[in-house]
Specification:
This protein has about 400 residues and is mainly α. About 70% of the residues lie in helices and about 5% in strands.
Length: about 400
């Protein structure tokens, strides 16, 4: 892989020495974006990608809820941890004690004692609290991912609007030149009408693209929690430049190590095995209670393998999409060059009276479509790179 999409002004979400990143670093944010900054539609705001992410995180109700959930989990963790420690001390002092029913699997006190002795109760309490911490990180990742995607989507629509505007200006310029030629008797009235029709088509395309942009802007504002009618100027732009190749196998290893889903599944599997060990001291392998827990162990093992397979597939799919998008970008770049050349030929032959105005109009449309296809493919590559970066991290939640 020799190219990548660069978003100027963005601090990369994750940095690895052997992993290419889509973005360059940004200047420090000099002024915090707050709700007071967001006023009316007439007053636009400028946002870099990093500022957009920062604003969304600061004003997300989901983040507020997730932090409250973490606070609640911390209270429960402290209470349960103290109870477990007290139970562990009581086990050392005497066998005739009351085991907290919080940790029982059965009504049998011997099993409950074994659960504490094998560390099942302590690990269960620790895992519940750790999951709450991970959920907060996953929610933050989810918001960051959604904002970055929304930012790229809006940049894409901005580019399409720019292309449509260029096509409209080009069509108008050709029409104005056509009027002069018609006045001089160089072209016919029918040919002039053809150029006028080209302007009408370009105007229609521009208006529909502008509507698409307005809808995308509302979607972007919704993602950030901005007023729907807020005008936003995006300060980061898309470019395309060389990057280092991706080490696929190393990326898979990093993902398997970092992914939260795998960590949870792995710990649940270990707890299930320890629980089975605790139960086996009271219930033999031919009893229902033992077999019931054995099934849970096997299910936990399956869940772990499923989580690993899903993460690995996510990484490999992201890299494949990345490579495919890059190859197509090169094709579309050539298509733009060919369309530009075809337009020049159409304009020249029209001036010489060897082609019609409709051929010029069609050449305009072909160039516009080629440019749109190229920018859409760069956008697809950009999103594929974004998916890749999140595929090798803790995950992006739901």
């Amino acid at each position: 892989m020799k190219k990548k999409v660069l978003i100027y002004g963005l601090v990369a979400t994750m940095l690895f020495s052997t992993i290419p990143t889509a973005y360059a670093s940004t200047n420090d944010i000099k002024e915090e974006i707050t709700e007071e900054t967001i006023t009316t539609k007439e007053e636009s705001i400028s946002l870099s990608l990093d500022e957009a992410v920062q604003y969304a995180l600061q004003h997300s109700k989901d983040m507020v809820i997730q932090r409250l959930e973490l606070d609640k989990a911390e209270v429960a963790y402290n209470q349960n941890r103290r109870a477990v420690i007290q139970s562990e001390k009581s086990l050392d002092a005497s066998d005739d004690i009351n085991i907290p029913r919080t940790y029982e699997v059965t009504a049998d006190d011997n099993v409950n004692r074994a659960l504490i002795q094998h560390g099942v109760s302590r690990r269960s309490v620790e895992l519940a609290y750790q999951i709450s911490k991970w959920n907060l990180e996953l929610k933050e990742n989810t918001i960051e991912y959604n904002v970055q995607k929304a930012y790229f989507d809006l940049l894409q629509m901005e580019k399409e609007l720019e292309i449509a505007e260029e096509n409209l200006e080009l069509s108008r310029d050709q029409y104005e030149k056509g009027k002069l030629k018609h006045n001089l008797g160089v072209i016919s009235k029918q040919q002039l009408l053809g150029l006028e029709m080209g302007v009408s088509q370009a105007q229609s395309i521009y208006e529909s693209t502008k509507m698409g942009y307005e809808l995308q802007l509302m979607s972007f504002n919704t993602t950030l929690g901005l007023p729907l009618n807020q005008v936003v100027k995006l300060t980061d732009k898309i470019d395309y430049e060389e990057s280092e190749p991706i080490d696929l196998e190393n990326s898979v290893k990093i993902a398997l190590k970092n992914n939260v889903g795998i960590k949870i599944a792995d710990e649940n599997h270990e707890i299930a095995k320890l629980t089975l060990k605790a139960i086996s001291g009271r219930f033999p392998s031919n009893t229902y209670k033992y077999k019931e827990q054995d099934v849970l162990v096997q299910q936990a093992a399956k869940n772990l393998e499923t989580a690993k397979s899903g993460v690995e597939m996510g990484v490999r799919s992201a890299v494949l999409n990345l490579q495919t998008a890059e190859k197509q970008i090169k094709t579309y770049q050539k298509a733009v060059q060919q369309a530009e050349q075809a337009l020049k030929i159409a304009e020249t032959t029209f001036e010489l009276g060897q082609s019609t105005s409709s051929e010029v109009t069609q050449a305009n449309i072909n160039l516009m479509n080629a440019k749109k296809s190229l920018t859409q493919q760069i956008h697809a590559y950009n999103l594929a790179l974004l998916d890749y970066e999140y595929s090798i991290g803790i995950g992006k939640g739901v």
